């Protein structure tokens, strides 16, 4: 019998339970994956707490890697034994196995191991969306990346530097600065200091072209103050809590700013869009242009402990759960 982490009510990490589940056989154009590694993300926390709604009971988890162990009818591009990874638009990854639509999978190159792939798919595709689609980062750009010591942040710093941008990064504490400096960020600030004043000093009061902010409530308004006229604010996470309602006039009086709140799956909605983004991401990872930092691993059964430490800001880089 297959096991999975499930929760029957929204709440703290203690609602996560290790239970037996019936995975079943894949239907038409579906495959069954035996997971070898599962990625941990803040979206899993949002789903567990009820910030993002889900039908209960449910299994969280949006990214994983594994081996195909069964295929349904109508499958041409995948076969039993293929190594695959995915970023899913719904939960289900916190399981030893799951059934998924084949069109949402990508094959993994031999140069990328399963743990790296599980830490890379949702986070890396998110960065591809941020830096290559929402705002195509150029050599002349100065970008501000919050939570730079996290899984998405570390990938974003490396990719932005590869594109030639000047990178100003923020971290939650001084203890995390060295890890981000090692990624060649030009400036690494902490949220414990007056980082807005430092950004203005670094940019000679001109401001940055774009802010990438997954922190949310605690950094949103200050981030607007870091932008140059007609700059772009990209808010894509809520690790400190959701951003309160913002009057459009706030954007006007700060220099006709632009604001977006993207969702990855709007940018990878078609098979071709997903494959293009994944091809670019996996190529950079296979060539070590982007190096995945798996800062910690936990047995999948210990998902509750992983959630506690993620929420307490005790993790660095990506976290992987091992079935």
Notes on the structure:
This is NADPH:quinone reductase. This protein is an alpha/beta fold and 323 residues long. It folds into two domains: 2-121 and 270-322, Quinone Oxidoreductase, Chain A, domain 1 (Alpha-Beta Complex), CATH 3.90.180.10; 139-261, NAD(P)-binding Rossmann-like Domain (Rossmann fold), CATH 3.40.50.720. The chain is built from ten helices and 15 strands. Strands 3, 4, 5, 6, 7, 14 and 15 form a seven-stranded mixed beta sheet that branches. Helix 2 crosses helix 3 (151-162) and helix 2 (114-134) crosses helix 9 (271-286). The longest helix has 21 residues, at 114-134. The two termini are 14 Å apart.
Percent range for β-strand residues? 25-35%
Let me know the average pLDDT: 96
Report the biggest beta sheet as strand number plus sense, adding barrel if it closes. Answer: 7 strands, mixed
What CATH architecture of the largest domain do you see? Alpha-Beta Complex
Look at the structure and name the CATH superfamily of the largest domain: Medium-chain alcohol dehydrogenases, catalytic domain
GO cellular component, one term: cytosol
Family: Belongs to the zinc-containing alcohol dehydrogenase family. Quinone oxidoreductase subfamily.
Domain Enoyl reductase (ER): 11-321
Catalytic activity: 2 a quinone + NADPH + H(+) = 2 a 1,4-benzosemiquinone + NADP(+)
């Amino acid at each position: 019998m297959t096991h999975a982490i499930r929760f029957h009510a929204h709440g703290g990490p203690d609602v996560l339970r290790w239970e037996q589940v019936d995975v079943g056989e894949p239907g038409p154009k579906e495959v069954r994956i035996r997971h070898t590694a599962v990625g941990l993300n803040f979206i899993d926390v949002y789903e567990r707490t009820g910030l993002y709604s889900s039908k209960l009971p449910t299994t969280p988890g949006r990214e994983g890697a594994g081996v195909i162990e069964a295929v349904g009818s109508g499958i041409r591009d995948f076969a039993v034994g293929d190594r695959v990874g995915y970023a899913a638009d719904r939960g289900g990854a916190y399981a030893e196995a799951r059934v998924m639509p084949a069109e949402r999978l990508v094959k993994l190159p031999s140069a990328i191991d399963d743990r790296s792939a599980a830490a890379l798919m949702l986070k890396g595709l998110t960065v591809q969306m941020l830096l290559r689609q929402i705002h195509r980062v150029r050599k002349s750009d100065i970008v501000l990346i919050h939570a730079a010591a996290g899984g998405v942040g570390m990938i974003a710093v490396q990719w932005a530097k590869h594109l030639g941008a000047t990178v100003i990064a923020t971290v939650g504490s001084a203890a995390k600065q060295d890890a981000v400096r090692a990624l060649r960020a030009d400036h690494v600030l902490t949220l414990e200091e007056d980082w807005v004043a430092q950004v203005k000093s670094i940019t000679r009061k001109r401001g940055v072209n774009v802010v990438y902010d997954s922190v949310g409530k605690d950094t949103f308004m200050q981030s607007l103050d870091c932008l140059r006229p007609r700059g772009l604010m990209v808010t894509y996470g809520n690790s400190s809590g959701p951003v309160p309602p913002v009057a459009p006039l706030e954007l006007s009086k700060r220099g006709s700013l632009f604001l977006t709140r993207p969702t990855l799956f709007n940018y990878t909605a078609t098979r071709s869009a997903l494959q293009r983004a994944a091809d670019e991401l996996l190529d950079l990872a296979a060539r070590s242009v982007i190096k995945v930092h798996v800062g910690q691993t936990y047995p999948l059964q210990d998902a509750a402990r992983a959630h506690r430490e993620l929420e307490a800001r005790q993790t660095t880089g990506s976290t992987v759960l091992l079935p």
